[in-house]
Specification:
The protein is an alpha/beta fold. It is built from ten helices and nine strands. It has a seven-stranded mixed β-sheet, with helices on both faces. The chain has a two-stranded antiparallel sheet with strand order 5-6. The mean pLDDT is 87.
Length: 255
């Protein structure tokens, strides 16, 4: 199944290859949830954990999992308009309950360009975006998330909590020195901190990251495979096309 949201850097175009590389495991963990393209595409594991530092993203998944029926009722008056988009974008989140926060997140995500959560996508201006297909996808996502453990922590805590010999981690962090590299408080992921945890991990992991000299040198003690991925979710032509990425693992894979 597809992800119900748009997410820059999501693994829609690479998930088939990633899923084929997943080894046997008991516990599946995504410390950087994003659009959850891999989770939504793979078979269920005995235990599954998703996490993200983005509290609004995780609240959306949590509400979709635990309060689906009430969430769907919010769409009875759903209307795509720039005014509604701007109203919700600027609304005070402190005054919203979890249901309204999830609705706000989903509305802005679906009606912003490429899911950037900031600019109204006028292409959908005259089209109600919540058609039967979109509603069915939300229902599928709800069913898929029913048994998934949902966390909202720093990724370092998630590694420590769920790392066991039979765990498998899929890491899809914000990429190194890119526009989507913001992680928390305007700072980027410290890949050296991540690398140190990966060196001592008990389970197996697969990491996707943009291809550059720094990352190659930092991850040289692991298995590194090169892939090309097509990206189209960009306003600028320079952000569309095929880009080199690295798949880093602590076990040998064949591509």
């Amino acid at each position: 199944m597809n992800s119900p949201i748009k997410w820059r850097g999501g693994k829609r175009n690479l998930r088939k290859e990633i899923i084929e590389m997943i080894p046997e495991h008991h516990c599946y963990v995504e410390p950087f949830a994003g659009g959850l393209w891999v989770l939504f595409g793979k078979d269920k594991s005995k235990t599954e954990v998703i996490n993200d530092i983005d509290k609004n993203l995780i609240n959306f998944y949590s509400v979709l999992k635990n309060n689906y029926n009430e969430f769907i009722k919010k769409f009875n008056t759903y209307l795509v308009s720039r005014d509604e988009f701007e109203y919700l974008k600027n609304a005070d989140e402190e005054e919203m309950d979890e249901l309204m926060l999830a609705y706000k997140f989903f509305y802005i995500n679906k009606n912003s360009f490429g899911g950037d959560m900031s600019s109204f996508n006028s292409y959908y201006r005259d089209t109600p975006y919540m058609n039967d297909s979109a509603l069915k996808l939300l229902k599928k996502a709800h069913e898929r998330l029913k048994t998934v453990w949902v966390e909202n922590r720093d990724y370092t805590e998630i590694i420590k909590k769920f790392d066991k010999p039979d765990s498998f981690f899929f890491f899809d962090p914000p990429y190194y020195e890119t526009n989507n590299g913001s992680y928390k408080n305007g700072k980027n992921i410290d890949f050296e901190v991540l690398q140190q945890q990966l060196k001592s991990i008990k389970g197996k992991f697969l990491l996707t990251v943009n291809d550059n000299t720094y990352i190659r040198e930092l991850m040289k003690d692991f298995y590194i495979n090169e892939v090309e991925v097509q990206y189209n979710m960009s306003k600028d032509a320079s952000g569309r096309g095929k880009f080199g990425e690295l798949i880093v693992t602590n076990y040998e894979v064949a591509i």
